[in-house]
């Protein structure tokens, strides 16, 4: 465990590019293209399998009073990948070691797997919005000081986009609606049901899982566009 | 090894449904919807990782005079999943056991992996049409009687559709062009670069890999449509 938390993340490269691009168009006296008129640049990130835990679950797995240590800050403010990982044990006694915990703690326990992970371990993980875990499969987690059996919480996260209300207004979408994500490149693909999540705390960011990211061959240079 | 080859595959359920649907519309005196006017029904199949081998490679791995034994006939006439499998050894000494061989033998050796497989083993597998293996990574294969080092041949197969010339005419596409595959359901997704392969020997069939199939959550009931 690191004793000093990592420095807060610097602005994302795409944020700086977005600002510079707008200034350049203005300086040249040219009309802004649609992507540059957007309040925020579009960031598309691949979420590898991970879990969210309650403070009680962290204590069961890591010991009384234990608190998650930030290892890396994520793009959404205050969210981090923790130093801590757990072992996930599936119904066929297959395991995934080093399942990363994302912090801060939440008020429910949830394991998010790609479909390939779920099939490999033997979970029938339904596609759900984060937090909507009623009736989903349970699992066993193992930490350095204890086991924790979850009665439910194993999901495949629906591909989704975090939006600030300004982003939602720009794209003309509402919370809980769907938008298309068009991905270019040699494995060009359009995600036709990208769930829209809106909060004043959110920055514009698409989350897809590793199956989705690998299927469309997403790299830092892959062109991506949200299409209402 | 089975000594008696499996019976040739019965007509695919979708083929029978296609014929019955056309007859019903005719009997009812109703115009055929576009999907029913197509020469063939659309079959979408997920190809798990596999390899194609030359007769010489089969002899190196399985012994002199060895011939692949059909385990299961595939939808394309004469193609089969063999009883034989090999072990694939990647550059990080990680392995995939039980990599299925597809028969009959070809005039080149080729390993087709999903992107997730390739990343897990440490291959930088480019997206290629089958047979286009120049400059792709090599690998080591292990069979029951020997090893075989391939200097090249590890690819991620481009998502593609096999078409009879009648299908190509119906959809208005040419060999080597691209068509869209629209997949419905809770993970609705459109593949925007589905490579068109045409031969009088082909029946209409889309092949996607396990990443792509898992990303769009393909099941036997998932609605799929080719869109030029």
TrEMBL record, chains A, B:
Which Pfam families does this one have?
PTAC
Q: Where does this chain mainly localize? A: other
Matching entries from NCBIfam families are given as: PRK15070.1 (NF011652)
> What species was this sequence derived from?
Opitutus terrae (strain DSM 11246 / JCM 15787 / PB90-1)
Q: Which reaction does it catalyse?
A: propanoyl-CoA + phosphate = propanoyl phosphate + CoA
Which superkingdom, per the lineage? Answer: Bacteria
Question: Which subcellular locations apply to this protein?
Answer: Bacterial microcompartment
Q: List its EC numbers.
A: 2.3.1.222
What's this protein's name? Answer: Phosphate propanoyltransferase
Primary enzyme class: transferase
The keyword Transferase belongs to this UniProt entry's keyword annotation: yes
Q: What cofactor does this protein call for?
A: Zn(2+)
């Amino acid at each position: 465990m690191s004793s000093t938390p990592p420095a807060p993340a610097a602005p994302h490269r795409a944020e700086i590019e977005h600002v510079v691009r707008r200034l350049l168009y203005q300086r040249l006296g040219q009309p802004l293209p649609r992507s540059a008129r957007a309040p925020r640049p579009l960031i598309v990130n691949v979420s590898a399998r991970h879990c969210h835990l309650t403070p009680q679950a962290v204590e069961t797995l890591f010991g009384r009073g234990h608190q998650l240590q930030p290892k890396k800050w994520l793009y959404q403010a205050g969210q981090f990948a923790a130093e801590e990982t757990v072992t996930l044990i599936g119904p066929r006694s297959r395991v995934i070691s080093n399942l990363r915990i994302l912090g801060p703690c939440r008020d429910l326990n949830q394991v998010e797997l790609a479909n390939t992970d779920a099939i490999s371990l033997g979970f029938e993980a339904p596609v759900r919005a984060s937090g909507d875990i009623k009736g989903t499969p349970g699992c066993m987690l193992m930490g350095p000081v204890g086991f924790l059996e979850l009665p439910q919480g194993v999901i495949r996260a629906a591909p989704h986009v975090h939006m600030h209300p300004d982003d939602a207004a720009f794209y003309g979408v509402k919370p809980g609606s769907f938008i298309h994500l068009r991905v270019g490149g040699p494995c060009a693909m359009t995600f036709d049901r990208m769930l829209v999540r809106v909060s004043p705390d959110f920055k514009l960011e698409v989350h897809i899982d590793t199956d989705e990211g690998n299927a469309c061959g997403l790299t830092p240079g892959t062109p991506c566009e949200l299409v209402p």
